[in-house]
Amino acid sequence: MGETLHNVMLLAPEVCITLFLCLLFIVDGLFPSLRSNRFPMILTVVACIASMILTAKVGKTPAAYFGGMVVNDGFTTFFRYLFFFTAAVSSYVAFGSKEVEAKSRIEFSLLLLCVTVGMSLMASASNLLVLYMGIEMVSIISFVMAGFRRDNLRSNEASFKYLVFGGVASALMIYGFSLIYGLTGSLNYSQIAASLIAAQGNVGLITWLALVLIYSGLAYKISAFPMHFWAPDVYEGAPTPITAFFSVGPKAAGFAALLRILLTVFAVKTGDGNWKAVEGLSLTSIIAVISAATMIVGNLSALGQTNVKRILAYSSIAHVGYMLMGLVTLDRSGITAIIFYLIAYCAMNIGAFWVVGVVSNIRGREDLEAFRGIGWSMPVLGTCMAIFIFSLTGIPMFSGFIGKFLIFGSVIKSGGFLWLALLGVLNSVVSLYYYVKILKSMWLDKPETEESLRLPFYHAVGLVGLAIPTIVLGLYFTPILEFAEKTLATLL
After folding, report:
1. What's the number of domains the chain is made of?
2. Is residue 459 part of a domain?
3. Which candidate in 12, 269, 310, 321 could, as Cys together with 305 as Cys, close a disulfide (CB 3.0–4.6 Å)?
4. Structural contact between residues 471 and 417, judged by C-beta atoms closer than 8 angstroms
């Protein structure tokens, strides 16, 4: 009994979210009038803040619990903070959104909290079955969220495509898990790693097939090549607050699962604190090729787009390629750079989609024409979008530049993948073309009509709140890097 209670206490942040979920159900049943106001979204923000407080309390002592199937370490703590923050901001983005109908606000909050629990489970899983449960929890509810606007054909199409791609990816991944279980006799990460190490380089074709299948499932979650095709249509069809959440939350959860599996199962720690692939698994060259392909496909596909949501969708694919570069060397500096990049990416990407949502509310569409002259009509909105765009491009003085600098630097330092770093720089230059198209429309093109526009105060506060760390982290980033290093130091 005492051990069970201890396990539940370590799971306190997720339990807190679940309790707030139950509270939302009760409130919906007893007070249906609250469905038409912003109370559910406010309660969601409160739930996320409470869970972050609990995360700070339970994350001090690394431990494995529930028979070693779940771990509570610095790595889990970091991603819990990231997930809860993303969910809270996404709920705030939905304030006043015409796409999230007033009658559906409580459903939006319920679905958002459910996905957040699943993402947290993905980051803390140390067992393939628990990981699969977390991924399915995130995926199935995400299908519903993508089709949130039931009367909109694009939203229905987004949900259907997300479902089809998700079903295929899930089937491939679970088959890969079954192959790993057949080879090693276990689903626990530590025992699988021990079996692979004991093989002493005798890695057969079945192991490689399992790796490919598992990668297919995780690549789908992070929208990496070649499982990226769903992202542009889903991002365009889903309501913008949900798209903002998709672009950061589930993607970060996919990276959490990928990093933990790679570093604890298919790689071993060396004496200098870095990692090397298990003998017989030459992963670095493969990761480099995937990273390069993801960058190129994302950036080149964005060049001809006129819908800003699709531009940002392809941009998010390209950024996955940049982050994958940090895995190429399997050293501490590269992994630390990925963690920093995820923090920077969270602020600048949610901020960019937030601006798209505001413009969509005002003008009813999301193409470049809808952005004409809006920088002069709403200077705060235009300035914040410029900050997010500059950061996404990787221009100095912004957090995105520091993230790319750290990742590219780790690759160059390794000495073996200079071509990949140069390709990353070239891709960043290419991305400038489609990012500048947005700024040109906002600041250089004259509006169609001389309309008087006003940015709601709560939107202005939120956008400025994301723009400030985007600038600050580009100038003073040492504390975040130290936090990232501590995150890796306690990885179980």
Report:
1. 1
2. yes
3. 310
4. no
